[in-house]
Design the sequence.
């Protein structure tokens, strides 16, 4: 039986890769998508999510728009257009049919999880604002999640400041609520920047993707400009989080407690990953600390290139 999943995302080029990977995976039953402001504004992340689903032949999957901004304090600075003006690296997808679900994301998440006859796993690959609201407003429903898989945080250096990775930097208060609050007990996997920034695609991978068909060609074009000074590797951060669920044997995890700096100093958004603490109030999180880089890339390519044969 396919595993029921949802994804909260802010598409975003790597979010596009994550959505396509889910759609290409028969082991996963995608029940819904919620969008959050992050890589670009909420109107674009919502449209992009719906457009990518339509591209993958899954325009039937409902999409609900969520938070347009962080819970408490708007982040100071921006991403310097890392994903392009439209959020998908300059590619333009057709206007998706229909319309978004009218419910706010937190209500949509709660209703979908509550209605499911089997437990739902939630991927959270953008700022954690929607998930924090879901936990705060519907804690008993949230506790029914089978697992939360988060792409975010960093054990070492960040990518927005020396201390902070983008998703946590964008809304540290939300990350604090989701990753450190013992009030909602949900098994959680954290896939941090340290692993995702070196687990990506090389030029030969992009060439293979481009030759696979129309979907692969569009995806390769979107990914083509998404290197950000990382040399020969094109990161696919959010898609790695999907593989953490699909192919856990390709990842190495360690249990840890997470501390999120929600102060207003230069370390705002920092995630302290405490592998050594056996006691404490915060929940224990499974943190991905290593991955088989080549095997992850191959698995992602296998999934996404198969879509052109499925659609």
Sequence:
């Amino acid at each position: 039986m396919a595993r029921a999943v949802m994804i909260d995302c802010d598409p975003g080029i790597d979010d596009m890769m994550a959505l396509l990977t889910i759609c290409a995976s028969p082991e996963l039953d995608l029940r819904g998508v919620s969008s959050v402001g992050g890589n670009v504004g909420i109107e674009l992340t919502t449209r992009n999510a719906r457009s990518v689903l339509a591209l993958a032949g899954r325009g039937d999957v409902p999409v609900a728009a969520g938070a347009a901004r962080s819970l408490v304090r708007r982040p100071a600075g921006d991403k310097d257009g890392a994903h392009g003006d439209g959020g998908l690296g300059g590619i333009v997808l057709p206007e998706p049919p229909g319309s978004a679900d009218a419910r706010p994301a937190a209500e949509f998440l709660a209703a979908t999880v509550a209605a499911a006859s089997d437990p739902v796993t939630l991927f959270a690959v953008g700022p954690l604002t929607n998930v924090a609201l879901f936990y705060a407003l519907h804690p008993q429903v949230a506790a029914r999640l089978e697992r939360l898989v988060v792409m975010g945080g960093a054990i070492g250096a960040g990518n927005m400041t020396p201390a902070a990775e983008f998703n946590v930097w964008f809304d540290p208060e939300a990350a604090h609520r989701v990753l450190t609050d013992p009030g909602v007990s949900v098994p959680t996997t954290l896939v941090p920047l340290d692993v995702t920034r070196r687990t990506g695609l090389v030029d030969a991978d992009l060439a293979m993707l481009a030759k696979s068909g129309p979907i692969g060609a569009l995806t390769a074009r979107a990914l083509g400009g998404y290197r950000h000074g990382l040399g020969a590797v094109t990161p696919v951060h959010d898609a790695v989080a999907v593989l953490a669920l699909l192919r856990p044997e390709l990842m190495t995890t360690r249990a840890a407690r997470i501390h999120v700096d929600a102060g207003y100093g230069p370390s705002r958004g920092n995630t302290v990953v405490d592998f050594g603490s056996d006691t404490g109030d915060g929940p224990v999180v499974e943190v991905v600390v290593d991955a088989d880089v080549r095997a992850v890339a191959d698995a992602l390519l296998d999934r996404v290139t198969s879509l052109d044969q499925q659609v």
